[in-house]
Amino acid sequence: MEIPGIVGAGLIVIGVGMGIGRIGGSAMEGIARQPEAANKIQTAMIIAAALIEGIGFAALFAS
Amino acid sequence: MMGKKILTLLLLALLFSPFTTFASETVTEQTATDEASVKAGIKKYIAHHLEDSYDFSIWHAMGLEFPLPIILIDEGMHVFSSAKFHHGETVAESEGKFYKIYHAKIYRTDTEGTITIDPETNHPEQIKPWDFSITKNVVSIFLFGLLIFVLFTNVARSYGDTQIPNKLGRFLEPLVIFVRDDIAIPNIGEKNYRRYMGYILTVFFFIWFINLAGLTPLGINVTGNIAVTFALALITFLITQFTAKKSYWMHIFWNPSVPLFMRLPLAAIELLGVFIKPFSLMIRLYANMTAGHVVIMSLIGLLYIFNNWFARGAFLGLTLFLSIIELLVAFLQAYIFAMLTALYFGAAVEESDHH
Predict the structure, then answer these.
(1) Taking CA atoms, which of B74, B143, B191, B262 is between 20 and 30 Å from B152?
(2) Cβ-count burial of B350 within 10 angstroms (0-12 exposed, 13-18 middle, 19+ buried)?
(3) Side-chain half-sphere of B235: how many Cα atoms within 13 Å?
(4) Alpha-carbon distances, residue B45 vs B24, B38, B218, B318, B344 (angstroms)
């Protein structure tokens, strides 16, 4: 039985979702502990999320 | 205080509600009640919106449509109006040659406009001439490029010899300062940032304005076109490579901070990374904007599939909510593009001091 490519894409999207979720959660924690560093944390969070997001899109295009 | 906030939110909601209903204008023409044909119509409508087109159609039902010039290079130059195609339904004749639009691309055919499909590649066998037409996307880019140019030169002139912004400057100055202080300086560094500011500001405002324009009834989808994002990423790539300093190249091909036997495999990976970075810029912007447009238009399409008022109300609310999210995404994508561009420039001009 052949597994369709969209299943793999779905798996990758689950991974991407978990990854971005973790980044967001950790950033929240970081900001709660050090509100004065909020700007720096936010920037780093957005960059990391954007990089992971790229993998998600690559998966969607490959499927 | 609270009441004022709620009022502003309501005003915003009112502002955007016509946009979403505007965008649905062609679906309402689908008089067929048959569910399958409604679904097919919605699919066709979304696909049509995502593609570039040869005429600028703002409101089909009201006749708000403009034909655009077609420029083809096919054994000599052919220039004619896209009105000759009648929205792709008829064959256009120009100096003894006949052209037909098939799947949003122009092919050279005979007087009948026959298109034969090659069964192996699934593409038409007809010749595709070089196409330099001023399409909808090109017009939008020209328009918004001009708008940004006029806007910013006016604001720059309005300063005169004072330091105080007035009128529009009060709105745009904080944004320019934001790009400088939060995007350029932290990533490129105090010393080198000035020579890149022009490009970073341009790319930021261009993407942002075009993204916002995509949410208006103009119905354009410029940054959701991979050729446009390719061009933007290419410019970033070229600037990065041509302004890079010696230590950038050294860190790619012969990284001094890793053991000797790792330097060659690392060089291969780094060389790949040089091309993957702009590639990811291209894909990210394209995919985000396309996905946003598809989601909003699918939700509008669902309004026509469901036949009860409860579901319609829910989907109308959801469309409004997603439109507001898209406002945020429009800004966020411009921000990320400018930010990553600045990051790559920063890596190119960084002086290594660990030796």
Answers:
(1) B191
(2) middle
(3) 14
(4) 9, 10, 15, 20, 38
What ipTM was predicted for this assembly?
Answer: 0.71
Handedness of CA B112, B116, B122, B123 (dihedral sign): negative
Residue B150 is predicted with a pLDDT of 93
Query: How does pLDDT run across A8-44, given as a tens digit for each residue?
Result: 888 988 999 999 999 999 999 999 999 998 888 988 8
> Two tokens at B109?
């055919």
* Nearest chain A alpha carbon to B186: A40
| Integer CA distances (angstroms), B238 to A26, B202, B232, B278, in order | 35, 16, 10, 10
Yes or no, beta carbons of B336 and A58 under 8 Å apart:
no
Rounded distance, CA B173 to CA B155, Å?
9
- Between CA A38 and CA B187 the distance in angstroms is 17
Q: Residues B337, B232: contact at Cβ < 8 Å? A: yes
> Is the whole-model pTM more than 0.90?
no
Cβ under 8 Å to A: B residues 152-211? 182, 186
**Mutation for testing the B interface, residue in A13, A16, A47, A63 having most B CBs under 10 Å:** A47
Residue B16 has a pLDDT of 54
Residue range B164-201, pLDDT digits in tens: 887 788 889 999 999 999 899 988 888 888 999 999 99
For chain A, domain boundaries: 19-62
User: Does the structure show a pLDDT above 80 at B71?
Assistant: yes
Element (H, E) at B245: none
